[in-house]
Q: What sequence folds into this?
């Protein structure tokens, strides 16, 4: 009986010079930084490993996509202007066990941003409110969401200057565009309110522009019942409060102050 001839093993055909050059040109047009050396190496790996077309394409593009994502995240973190961008995993949960860890870790998943819902942290100074909300903001950046962090005082200063040079509408649009705006230290210093008679109106402009369109995180050490007194305008305070808390996640923090009991630790607000 005549033996059957052996079938040659399948190989992935190398790109012809003309096709190779065209592929490199297409990558350049698409602004995908794949070099000729990277393409040749990927083709050789595909041939040696017998990769499918999809596996070959994934191997070729995965590294470039990863690098581009890393650069975007770096830009988002810089743009956010955090005062301390620390991962949530480094927070000391044991110092104040009453802090709702599960709830805060759930917020770090970013679903509230996709749902365009607000978050309000309420509690006395020194509990770590600023630290926690900035960690949530950092987690949002890692999910490639644009975040902007500011304090209530800095926000008022910026908006007051914008009123003076008639660019207030541009600044409101600026603050309205971020998927997550973090406003820290609301009510932290009553001097900021006394120095700006239009404070309540300016805060309202920002919150109203973002209401049900974007997520706002507000960090405060004054209870909701004290907003009218703090703002000096009860009807406007009610309108502002309605827009902030409508559908919002309210996190009330209690415990002992890091500043008083842990002087060796960085200040926590």
A:
């Amino acid at each position: 009986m005549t033996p059957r001839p052996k079938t040659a093993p399948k190989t992935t055909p190398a790109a012809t010079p003309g096709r190779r050059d065209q592929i490199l040109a297409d990558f350049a047009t698409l602004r995908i930084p794949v070099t000729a050396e990277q393409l040749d190496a990927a083709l050789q790996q595909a041939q040696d490993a017998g990769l499918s077309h999809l596996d070959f394409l994934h191997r070729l593009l995965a590294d470039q996509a990863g690098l581009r994502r890393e650069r975007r995240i770096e830009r988002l973190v810089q743009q956010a202007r955090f005062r301390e961008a620390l991962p949530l995993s480094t927070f000391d949960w044991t110092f104040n066990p009453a802090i709702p860890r599960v709830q805060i870790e759930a917020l770090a998943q970013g679903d509230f941003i996709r749902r365009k819902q607000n978050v309000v942290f309420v509690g006395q100074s020194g509990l770590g409110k600023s630290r926690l909300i900035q960690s949530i903001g950092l987690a949002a950046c890692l999910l490639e969401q644009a975040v902007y962090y500011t304090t209530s005082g800095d926000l008022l200063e910026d908006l007051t200057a914008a009123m003076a040079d008639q660019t207030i509408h541009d600044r409101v649009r600026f603050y309205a565009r971020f998927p997550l705006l973090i406003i820290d230290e609301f009510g932290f210093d009553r001097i900021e309110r006394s120095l700006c008679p239009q404070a309540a109106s300016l805060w309202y402009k920002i919150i109203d522009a973002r209401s049900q369109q974007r997520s706002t995180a507000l960090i405060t050490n004054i209870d909701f019942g004290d907003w009218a007194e703090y703002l000096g305008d009860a009807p406007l305070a009610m309108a502002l409060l309605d827009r902030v808390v409508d559908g919002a996640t309210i996190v009330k923090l209690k415990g002992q102050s890091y500043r008083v009991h842990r002087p060796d630790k960085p200040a926590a607000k």
Q: What stands out?
A: Residues 81-261 form a domain with the Rossmann fold fold (CATH 3.40.50.300). The first strand starts at residue 119 and ends at 122. Residues 53-80 form the longest helix (28 residues). Residues 7-13 have pLDDT under 50 and may be disordered.
